[in-house]
């Protein structure tokens, strides 16, 4: 009876943690969408184009921050607490330095004001450095605080832009304000990560069934190095690249109207891809500890979510395209399940890539780069120059990547980190 009660309490805590992280993700995405909406209403077409370009560059420059978070979280869950401050500062400084060095080139090549590209370097520093504290909270499985930290990062990253645009300011002033809010968010993140609360406050998410019940953070082991961060950054970049590859190919290979239609369908892909990502975020520390049951449960949840979204797209394809793009795109309703399937398959792939990173596998994202190359080759040399042609290549590439990643992850019987958890 006591064991059943304990498991019920564990599931409740995990459910609360998942809900909190989901809400934080929704807040982040909402703020990200508010910025272009305000920009379209407050800025001229030229200023809006410049701001949108800088935000796209900022998303690319933020990749090392996500890599840093994954590396810190996996290392902390596997090896215990350690000094991540210097490595975090070096990663942020290096990324900002590269962005700063590229500022003159970006200014000329993309016809941007120099002020914007210089401010981009400052915002990049804050965004990347925040990955250190997010990773610490994730690795400690302090998911309620992680949710709060995610909101702090989102407000810091987009808050100044929202305020500046709401006040009718231009791109430069708005980006300056968001640079300030981003930097001001860093002390709050440090306070959330460093203040007491693990595990006494109950902030730690409960272990899954069969997992090791770790009452304390493990003692510090080997230090986190630059190689692990670079590996995680490479995996993050590979995931970002393959998730946008079909959209870029459609832009290059299809007529303007068809590429626009593909972009509308790609919204369904992104929805199916990101909807279950909270599962990957929650399970990463368990993956780093070699918890095979947690991996299977996470995979089952992601597959179930993807199946529901694909079936829903098949049943309500017309409604989906009407909501996303309007009546002009209803002729593509029959492709809705395929667009959703691409996202659902990549959601599986991304979880398995995170598993490979968490268990310190070599070249964890190599299959994604190969799949991206195969997708490009197939779309350029074989597929018809139609929405269906590019989409078919995308589905095949996603399915192949999922099969290969599954074989790599579940075929690692000799990996010592994949031992069953202790009773």
Short characterization:
The chain has two domains: 2-194; 226-418, no CATH class. It has 15 helices and no strands. The protein has helices at residues 2-42, 45-61, 63-79, 85-109, 114-139, 143-166, 171-194, 226-253, 256-274, 277-288, 292-315, 317-324, 336-358, 366-381, 387-410.
Question: What are its keywords?
Answer:
2 domains; globular; 423 residues; mainly alpha; single chain; 15 helices
Q: What is the number of E strands?
A: 0
Largest sheet: none
Overall average pLDDT: 85
- Into how many domains do the coordinates divide? 2
> Strand pairing plus helix content: what structural class?
mainly alpha
Task: Write up what this structure looks like.
It is a single chain. The protein is mainly alpha-helical and 423 residues long. The chain has 2 domains: 2-194; 226-418, no CATH class. Helices cover 78% and strands 0% of the residues. The chain contains 15 helices and no strands. Helix 3 crosses helix 10, helix 4 packs antiparallel against helix 5 and helix 8 runs parallel beside helix 14. The longest helix is centred in the first third of the chain and has 41 residues, at 2-42. The two termini are 18 Å apart.
């Amino acid at each position: 009876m006591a064991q059943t009660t304990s498991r019920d309490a564990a599931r409740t805590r995990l459910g609360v943690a998942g809900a909190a992280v989901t809400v934080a993700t929704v807040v982040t995405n909402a703020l990200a969408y508010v910025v272009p909406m305000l920009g379209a209403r407050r800025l001229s077409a030229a200023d809006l184009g410049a701001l949108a370009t800088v935000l796209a560059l900022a998303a690319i420059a933020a990749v090392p921050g996500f890599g840093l978070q994954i590396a810190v979280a996996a290392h902390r869950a596997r090896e215990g607490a350690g000094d991540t401050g210097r490595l975090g500062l070096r990663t942020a400084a290096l990324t900002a330095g590269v962005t700063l060095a590229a500022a003159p080139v970006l200014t000329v090549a993309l016809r941007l004001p120099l002020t914007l590209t210089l401010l981009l370097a400052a915002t990049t520093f804050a965004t990347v450095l925040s990955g250190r504290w997010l990773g610490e909270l994730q690795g400690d499985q302090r998911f309620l605080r992680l949710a709060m930290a995610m909101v702090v990062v989102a407000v810091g990253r987009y808050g100044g832009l929202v305020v500046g645009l709401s006040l009718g300011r231009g791109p430069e002033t708005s980006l300056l304000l968001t640079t300030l809010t981003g930097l001001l968010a860093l002390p709050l993140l440090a306070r959330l990560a460093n203040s007491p609360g693990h595990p006494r406050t109950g902030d730690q998410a409960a272990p899954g069934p069969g997992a090791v019940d770790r009452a304390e953070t493990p003692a510090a082991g080997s230090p986190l190095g630059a190689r692990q961060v670079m590996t995680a950054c490479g995996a993050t970049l590979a995931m970002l690249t393959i998730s946008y590859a079909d959209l870029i190919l459609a832009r290059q290979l299809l007529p303007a109207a068809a590429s626009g239609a593909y972009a509308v369908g790609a919204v369904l892909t992104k929805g199916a891809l990101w909807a279950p990502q909270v599962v990957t975020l929650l399970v990463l520390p368990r993956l780093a500890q070699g918890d095979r049951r947690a991996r299977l449960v996470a995979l089952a949840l992601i597959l179930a979510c993807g199946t529901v979204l694909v079936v829903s797209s098949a049943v309500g394809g017309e409604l989906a395209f009407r909501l996303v793009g309007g009546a002009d795109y209803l002729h593509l309703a029959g492709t809705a399940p395929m667009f959703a399937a691409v996202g659902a398959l990549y959601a599986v792939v991304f979880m398995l890539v995170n598993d490979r990173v968490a268990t310190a596998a070599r070249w964890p994202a190599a299959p994604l780069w190969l799949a991206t190359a195969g997708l490009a080759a197939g779309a350029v040399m074989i597929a018809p120059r139609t929405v269906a042609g590019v989409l078919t290549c995308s589905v095949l590439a996603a399915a192949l990547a999922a099969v290969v990643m599954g074989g790599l992850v579940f075929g690692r019987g000799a990996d010592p980190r994949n031992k069953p958890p202790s009773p």
